[in-house]
Amino acid sequence: MHEPEFNDLSDDSDYAASQQQGLGGSVFGGDPGMTSGFNEHEASEVVYSKDNVTIHPTQYGSERISGRLRLVKQGESVFMTWVPYKPYPDGPDHLGQSSNSGLSEKDRNLYTIAPVPLSEVCSIRRHTPTLSWPYMIVILSSGLAFPPLYFYSGGLREFLATLKQHVHVVRSADDANVFLVNNFQDPLQRSLSSLALPMALSVANGAPSENLSSSVPLFENSERLNGTKYYTSPNISEYSGRRKHKSHDPARDLSLQVLEKFSLVTKFARETTSHIFRENQGNSFDASEKKQQKQSPALTPTISKPSEEQSHSNDAVVEPDPLELDKSSLVWGKPRQPPMNFEEWAAFLDSEGRIMDSKILRKRIFYGGVEFSLRKEVWKFLLGYHTYESTDAEREYLASVKKSEYEIIKSQWQSISPAQAKRFTKFRERKGLIEKDVVRTDRSISYFDGDDNPNVALLHDILLTYSFYNFDLGYCQGMSDLLSPILFVMEDESEAFWCFVALMERLGPNFNRDQNGMHSQLFALSKLVELLDAPLHNYLKQADCLNYFFCFRWILIQFKREFEYERIMRLWEVLWTHYLSEHFHLYICVAILKKYRNKIMGEQMDFDTLLKFINELSGKIDLDRIIKDAEALCICAGEHGAACIPPGTPPSLPIESDSGLYSQPDDL
Amino acid sequence: MSYAYLFKYIIIGDTGVGKSCLLLQFTDKRFQPVHDLTIGVEFGARMITIDNKPIKLQIWDTAGQESFRSITRSYYRGAAGALLVYDITRRETFNHLASWLEDARQHANANMTIMLIGNKCDLAHRRAVSTEEGEQFAKEHGLIFMEASAKTAQNVEEAFISTAATIYKKIQDGVFDVSNESYGIKVGYGGIPGPSGGRDGSSSQAGGCCT
């Protein structure tokens, strides 16, 4: 995965959205309960202080917020805090509020970092771009990340050095710019086994030499051992002891509102989070598990695999979700945006109607969908019927060519006489099936309701024409569900047909007689769940549910039966962007399953019960929430997730072969 | 709601024979000609009384199209009863019965009670399969048989209940080990479970003990 060189906030509308929410107070300030044990009345010692450490909420220079970063020691604990400067009373902020900075003092205070104990810090990523200021991203063990802190006057190196004196810091084995704080497990264990350094061993034994930290310079250019280094604190046992005293976890106390706030952390920070989480993965995502291990002074190799015994030895206890960072949800999916409107859409087009940046367009649609009136136009691109490079004129021409092409294919079945049909069983059967099904498709939608509705007849004609266009695949139940919203949006027979054709290029294998397209997706889903929720996977395994047939309907017709009509159009356009993954629908599946994992496992659902339960979720799923969760899962899984999905798994375009895509014996 | 037993039923048969309509008529006592076609499986449930015992029927209504057979087969597991449905106005749905039966025999437990239903008997003027043919097929394969109409509700109640009565009798006769849920029977908490007229008369509560 490529690493963005700088922090791109220009298209991160989360910030804008957050500004409008108008939350009072700061993210961490205001509520004394959130200050994690820091007592401002108690004596404290400032061990590090740096001015001109700045946050860039937007790409506008005028909206940068400078402040002071400090490390404060109070008793045995060290806290990190960052406080923005007050705007100068006579400064530009004050004079030109409308023309200059759009940030009010309230907005500025939003980013205040109230004292957070270093014991809550999980990792720090350092960036030292050659042409810009160095900055760092601090990630808490709860998974929250602070916005990048830019060191305008230097001091990042000093910060890390000071940090090192107070907490246990290990440089990640995979990325020399990532410093794992309070991390005694995976990287160290890994290093132990692979390198068996005496130094590291002494750390592992909990008795590091006092001189050790000073004997290893924090930053040196000559990295050895694949860039792996250990930076150890001389007082691990002290740290552990201190950790024990803490009875409550401040990160868990953060309100959802605050968590939402933090989903405005930049995409970049999130990617860093997921990157680091991947590194730490080793089946030990779980924060609480991590903490238990931290508390163990012996630092024995306790990388616990979610064991199978555990999952069925105890009826009542459900193994925690390894990715659950907060009780209420996975929090790092971006807030959803309003659907793209006409002005935004028009801005993507050049003077001849070409889409100038399809990636950004797809990203925009991924995060908010499009307004209904635009669907007719936009879906044709998303589905691949139109290419992004085509001009208005080319598309207009294509439409007329395609219209006559459609008429030709349609005339093939229309010209079959009754006498011919009598001798053409396959045709009769297909036609009969389609006739039976179109009258059972979305008739509660006004577009298709009532007797002799012409739109129902259009569904019939398009499906029968498709079964001639793709005779090998023919017609299969579920296709009418996929066609219905397309026809509803296109309101044109030929255009709907060609959009449907484009969709079926990807989803056709769902309807193969041997169901191989479905099986490959269900298989990939099982692999993803294994990756992203091992306890749930183990549960489903022992409950003999690994065939994932309970997700069959979800995948076959892209959740069509799980959401109301307007919502399904929104979900589909999000899926069709293929923005984060071609297989985002599988992450949607995982997100839904994870949402109900505790219920599924807690109630010990068997196959029948689970199937019924999943079926009855129809109409009860919060779409925006699930898309956000799926986004977080997809980013978190990263390449490991992609590796779970075998090449050619629908909706990836199939690999063409001479024998035809859908050749199957004895199909209807 | 409490019940003495819960029976799992599965409704199978070609697409468009009226499986979902039979279910709806049985559970909701209404006929809804316009409904969405079944993808995968749908569920329905209703309480009935047999021998003064409350029995809950949990009914699985499956998709009929050939392509979905491999998925449908996984639903047979643990079904106590099956309604095998054809449409008396469409000959081919009758012709396919043998293959449905083969599936059922292969994937369901051997003691599953199968009821053959010739649906849409209100459309007698379009009949393509005679009652005698249905009877004959049922007799040959050891099935119970009825013609019914989901539209007029004729025999719908009877079809579901007589299937349940047959299953209930099998329990009485000791054919099933009711503590083994693979037979599609769960013993409930609310009624008086166990074989009242059976062997020793002592009823085992909640299926906790096997005989």
From TrEMBL, chain A:
This is Acyl-CoA N-acyltransferase protein. It comes from Dioscorea alata (Purple yam). It comes from the Eukaryota.
From TrEMBL, chain B:
Keywords: Golgi apparatus, GTP-binding, Lipoprotein, Membrane, Nucleotide-binding, Prenylation. It comes from the Eukaryota. CDD domains: Rab2. Belongs to the small GTPase superfamily. Rab family. It is a lipid-anchor. One of its GO terms (molecular function) is GTP binding. This is Ras-related protein RABB1c. GO terms for cellular component: endoplasmic reticulum membrane; Golgi membrane. Pfam families: Ras. It is found in: Endoplasmic reticulum membrane; Golgi apparatus membrane.
